[in-house]
Amino acid sequence: MFISTQAIVLSKLKFSDKDLIVKCYTKEKGIVSYLIKNIFSKKSKFSIAYFQELSLLEIQTNYKEGRSLQYIKEAKLLAPYKTLQTNLIKSTLVMFLSEVLSNILREEEPQENLYEFLKTAFLLLDEEVSISNFHILFLLELTKYLGFYPETTNLDLAYFDLLEGKFQEKSTSEYCVKNENLMVLKRALGIKFDAFSEIKFSNNQRQSLLNMILLYFQLHLGDFKKPKSLAVLNQVFN
Known about the structure:
By secondary structure, the protein is an alpha+beta fold. It has helices at 88-104, 112-127, 134-146, 179-189, 203-220, 230-236; strands at 2-15, 19-26, 30-36, 56-62, 72-77, 159-161, 166-168, 176-177. The protein is elongated.
């Protein structure tokens, strides 16, 4: 079946001396892995630059149901980035976010609103200058599409239970957030995603909030693993 679809590159893995396996989140088919043969040879019709993490592509393929690795007939950059892979801070964010998404989106069916959110978010990141809190707001917004966005009623209560995903009067588990951590979480929840450049956090607040959000992911996605690139990200923002 011939398919033309937009795709976001989540990860790539060298396979033999000349081939590459690329995992993408596609608009039409959800998660798809592609084998790009002979891409490291001089005669390849594909540029390795197309398949950098979070690249936005337009691809054409003869898609076969049930095949673990598909083959790309044609590929082009849908929207070439200006800064995402050349700016040190942004490229570190790309490394972190692609690892998170590869961890989360494994057998996902197509979800057009999730695809459009990711595409819009990465184009916004490419354009913005003040991006130190992008990943915080991105991860919170992502939970809307994964089905466990925090319940924002009763914001005046003294605790937020990460396990239950809601504000409450009393601490009922070891996963209850309070005091300054609660205040920082409330501030983050009160900001629209596309206004991430307007919110200000100290380095300590940002790091505490990120750890809180990653724990939230672990509690609601049983097989979620803390990203290996987290240490590098923390170094960049501290």
